[in-house]
Amino acid sequence: MKYRLEPQSLEWINRSETLNFSLEGQTFSGFKGDSISSALLAGGQKLLGRSFKYHRPRSVLSMANHDVNALFQSGEATNIRGDVTPVDDGLALRACNVNGTLSNDRDSYIGLLSRFLPVGFYYKAFHKPKKFFPFWERLIREKAGLGEISTDWSATRQPKKYGFCDLLVIGGGASGMQAALSAADAGADVVLVDENPHIGGSLDYQLVNEPSAAAVRSQLKQRVVEHTNIRVLSGHYACGWYTDHYVPLVGPKGITKMRAAGVIMATGVMEQPSVFRNNDLPGVMLASAAQRLIARYAVKPGQRAVVLCANDEGYRAALDLIEAGVDVAAVVDLEWLDKRGDWAAQLQEKGVPVIEQSAIYEAKGKTSLKAVVVAPFDGRSCDSGQTRTIPCDLLLMSVGWAPAAQMLYQAGSKMAYDKKAQQILPQQLPKGIHACGRLNGAFTLEQRLADGERAAKEAVAELRGETVESDIGRFRDDRAHSHDWPIISHPKGKNFVDYDEDLQLKDLFNAAKEGFDNIELMKRFSTNGMGPSQGKHANMNGIRVLAEINHKSIDETGSTTARPMFHPVPVSALAGRRFRPERLTPMHSWHEANGAKMMEAGRWLRPEYYLPRTDVGTLPNAASGAVSASERQRVILQEVQAVRSSLGIIDVSTLGKIEVMGPDAGKLLDVVYTMKMSTIKQGMTRYALMVDDSGVIVDDGIVGRITEDRFYVTATTSHADAAFRTLSMKTQELGLDVRLVNRTGSLAALNLAGPVSRKLLSQLTNVNLSEDAFPYLGLREGTLCGYPVRLIRVGFVGELGYEIHMPADAALEIWKTLIEAGKPYGIRPFGVEAQRVLRLEKGHIIVGQDTDGLTNPFEANMGWAVPLASKPWFTGKPSLALLKERCQRKLIGFRLPQGFTGESNGELPKECHLLIENGEIAGRITSIAYSPTLGRVIGLAMVDLPLADQAKPLKARVDSGALITLEPCATPFYDADGTRQTADLTEVA
Amino acid sequence: MTGLMSNLNLTCRDRLRGYLLTGPGSQAAITAAGLPLPEAVLSAVESDGALVARTGSDEYMAYIADPQLLPTYDWCFPRADRVFALKGKRWIELMAQVCQYDFRQMQPGDWLMASVVGVNCWLYLEANGALLIGFDSGYDHYMSDTFSTLLSELGDIESNEGDAQ
Looking at the record's lineage, which domain of life comes first (chain B) (predicted)? Predict the structure, then answer.
């Protein structure tokens, strides 16, 4: 660690703990608290990365989480930011975007071709000859992009948590700490967040050697830490601002989703580079980067330095270099020295020459800085005829700042360019948003403290509901800290505006020449500000360049949108814990114990099918899913046959179950469902179709009438909660005297289906099941196995059957009793897949499978459920009245030729396979299955009109690309007369 | 079920049976059953092991351990709820990971209906500091697994992140 300095007063490193790591196989040492870059620099490794496009050598620029040319790769992680990522023992690194090694990058030749790769070249080249495009595409994809993603990664999730406070202060520098203290003193509950591991901000690196700041620093920090109304979250960054002051704070252990009543932005400023030839050479860095290296990591940034400045801060940096033992060869000031203050005077006292009204015309060096060429500067350009060369290995740039105002923009603040400050400053802030400190143009320590206090007072007053007259500009500095044109053209170029994307000054001029002379268009054409740092060092200079080109002001030129996230956020943090609610029916344990292969149905788990017990017990691997397709198909068909021939039982507890009661219950149901429900007789049910205001089918079920003022409604599994919400909403909207109870969870349900169902059920219930006493579509209340139940005669699967609705805590016992009692009849539990086949044979649709987000009842052949003429009103009626004549497609039945099974005579089409007519898409298959009852494959398809009405063979394109012929046919496929609904075993025998 | 997180444990209130009463006769039915009657909507009162919450103008949810207190009323519907009791110094820290309500403002006797780990729940803070979490019993295994994981993971974490929640 030959460039390590003596201990610094506020250094972050712990010298008692040495860490060893490697870069490209070479071992380095650092201290606990070092960043990767600081440890490498301390060890003499100046070259840290290669640039994105030209693979130019790069090193430290900011040391502020913006150094996107010093990205590293470890075994699992990529694009590790060396400037802020702590070094760890045993870390094995290599550089991103390097073909070979850092010192010998085989792609560095690309820089020699730069004249052939002008801005936007990839939009124009490679199109002809067309056949070579794949070659170029592959090559560009290989060369472009940063880092390599390891596909052998381990999934990690960081927990998220919710946080709350009165005031969130973002930025733990002088103004932020003062704002937090003032607000906390006034009684506010404050959270102070800072992205660095320690609060202090620029106080701790820019003013670390400033005696007058020492007392302020220690007092502020101590009071902040000890204040009971302040919670300090260091090492966390606010990654974006969202509505109602919802600010995610990203920390090392995950995201805290902070909801604040108000936010004070004390986010500071980001130092901006000067644009000149070779301004990217290792050794050229921002002044604040050098100050961070010295103060935080005790790293000597160079041996002989030149400081380019356009403000007092540059002189402070030069003084800090001298303090750190760096030989300062000269200070080059873009302006006159008489504009500077005490720090410039101190520097002159130390004998450092100041070259006024001059700029860096060019930096010299191949892989690192060797010298700078200085030339007189008139505020716009250099006089290249009067240059002088100064040997140096370090050049600091201190020419101006850009506000870290991304979240101010996101919150909707109005910003404007202040010519006095030569900086974009907030002008008008939305309610609950406040800004202070350098972000707000307050630069001296006194100004920052006063501005922090002002912002806190205004924020607290606003929280108290007092009328606040904002005095946002009161403590702004009256001197500029940025130069309006720190940009030097050079005939040989390589003067970079955007380090992320290797954009040179001429690239922006060329983009404008091509017509992309609007800030948003220029950004997209040139990619200025679109790299990993998102323009934190490029946007301000980009705006200045475009303003110059267009002869417009900065405000007239505008700025680009600053979207979240402020820094990249790990996917593991975004993912958070996995909360995936899973709901089980009361019979779940029985299903699992009896070979059920479970599947997800919305939040529920339902049996897909059962592998029946054998002599040696349940077939293996049912739960793990290791069941062959043929075995699966075999048991599903057996379940279908059991229902058709004898008896099946299925758990339908997942159905929505809603009690609708009160004098207006019928009126409510008339409004919500297409058909009239108020006319249902007591003890009877009716099919219930729900559409939305646009006439799209959203749900179906049945409505049964218990008493005059009491109905029982079922809804589909996935729409149960939505159906309840719709009923609740309509009750409120219409002011109806109705009470609703969602009993989906408190009631279980099963469907006992098959010719024997009546016979079995009659042995266990007190309800009279005779055809006269309990007709098809009837609803009865009674007891079953001693428990109160509702029995409903429905026919979804097309057989005599009873839906049994019962208390959840009685369901398992009733289920077991039915299974036991049904054994003599060969009762068989069946799952969702068999149910799908059964209902398909009957031609019944499944909402959400045979319909989509646009399907109306006429398209689904359910015009019979839309009484446009006889019913005065229901939800969706006006839309359906129009849609009736505008039907564009229709659901039709089809079957495959006899003997087509998909096994040996062609590929079996699947749901969602497209129908093709004359080479165009003409529909899609919505349901398809082999029907054991019919002995052939049947299905439903949504087909465009008029093709759907033409009864001609259809063609389905299967996965292999082959076209399979479908024969349109009428539905239902099975028991068209519905005689099975009233048959029992005796009658059909 | 008992959690491992330091100073925090989770138990089940198996004996509590839930009922929903709605309609114009609900108030009279609750009073007649000798149950406490909350006045404000979305408030709750407890007495002698019974907890009654008012969830609408004439809608109540009653949780009773003693079956003899069951109200007699046509529109009284049994619920199939499972009730957890979370108790301990760091319960707010745990809840901050699973629910977006600011539990710092929750006082003993407060009733709340909110989403917890993605499941609709009711929550009630007992005078003894235990937070009751009621939910449909179909989610029992999911809630049990999730809270067990949270308790074991949080047990290893020091509360040193500024206590932001």
Answer: Bacteria
Nearest Cα of chain B lies from the Cα of A720 at a distance, in angstroms, of 14
**Parallel, antiparallel or unpaired: strands A92-95 and A14-23:** parallel
Closest-CA residue in chain A for B94? A161
- Choose the mutation target among A168, A583, A781 for the interface with B, i.e. most B CBs under 10 Å: A583
Q: Which residues pair with A975 in a beta bridge?
A: none
Place of tokens 């009654």: B52
B142 touches chain A (CB under 8 A): yes
Instruction: Please tell me the distance from the alpha carbon of residue A328 to that of residue A287, in angstroms, as a whole number.
Output: 13
Q: Is the pLDDT of residue A171 over 50?
A: yes
Percent of chain A residues past pLDDT 90, beyond the cut:
88
The pair of three-digit structure tokens given for residue B159, joined into one six-digit string: 């509360």
What does the mean pLDDT of chain A come to? 94
Which residues on chain A are in Cβ contact (under 8 Å) with B77? 659, 741, 743, 746
User: Which residue among B137, B138, B163 sits closest to A231, beta carbon to beta carbon?
Assistant: B163
User: What mean pLDDT is predicted for residues B43-53?
Assistant: 94
Query: A746 vs B97: CB contact, 8 Å cut-off?
Result: no
Nearest Cα to Cα of residue A319 among A299, A285, A342, A296: A342
CB–CB of A661 and B163 under 8 A?
no
Interface contact B22-A582, CB threshold 8 A: no
The answer to whether residue A160 neighbours chain B at the CB level (below 8 Å) is: yes
Name the A residues in 742-761 with CB < 8 Å from any B CB. Answer: 743, 745-746
**A614: CB partners within 8 A, 6+ apart:** none
Centroid of chain to Cα A436: 30
Tell me which architecture the domain covering A1-150 has in CATH: Roll (3.10)
Q: Where in chain A is the domain with CATH 3.50.50.60?
A: 161-270+403-463, 302-398
> Could you say which of B79, B102, B133 is where a domain stops?
B79
CB contact under 8 A, B153 and A159: yes
- With CB atoms and an 8 Å threshold, state whether A251 touches B161: yes
pLDDT at residue A988 is higher than 70: no
Grade residue A613 by pLDDT with cuts at 50, 70 and 90: low
What mean pLDDT do residues A206-214 have?
95
In angstroms, what CA-CA distances link A839 with A686, A835, A848, A861, A929? 18, 6, 15, 16, 11
Q: Which residues of B touch A258 (CB under 8 A)?
A: 164
Q: What is the pLDDT of residue A142?
A: 83
Confidence of residue A365 (pLDDT cuts 50, 70, 90): very high
Q: Residue A127: pLDDT band by 50, 70, 90 thresholds? A: confident
Residue A683 phi/psi, 5-degree rounding, is 85, 10
pLDDT at A951: 84
Specify the CATH architecture of the domain A161-270+403-463: 3-Layer(bba) Sandwich (3.50)
In chain A, CATH 1.10.10.1100 covers 485-573
Residue A362 confidence (pLDDT) above 50: yes
- Span A35-48, average pLDDT: 98
Query: A317: part of which helix (H) or strand (E)?
Result: helix A312-323
pLDDT higher than 70, residue A553: yes
Interface of A with B in 29-88 (CB under 8 A): none
CATH superfamily of A843-969: Probable tRNA modification gtpase trme; domain 1 (3.30.1360.120)
Decide if A580 and B118 are in contact by the 8 Å CB cutoff.
Answer: yes
Q: Is residue B150 domain-shared with residue B90, that is, in the same domain?
A: yes
What is the residue type of A81? R
Instruction: Identify the weakest region by mean pLDDT among A412-426, A608-622, A777-791, A841-855.
Output: A608-622
**Residues of chain B found within 8 Å of residue A231, distances taken between Cβ atoms:** 162-164
Residue B45 CB-density burial (10 A; 0-12 exposed, 13-18 middle, 19+ buried): middle
| Interface probe, candidates A193, A577, A731, A738, chain B, greatest B C-beta count within 10 A | A577
ipTM of the complex model? 0.93
pLDDT score of A989: 30
CB atoms within 10 A of CB A564: 16
Distance from CA of B99 to the nearest CA of A (A): 7
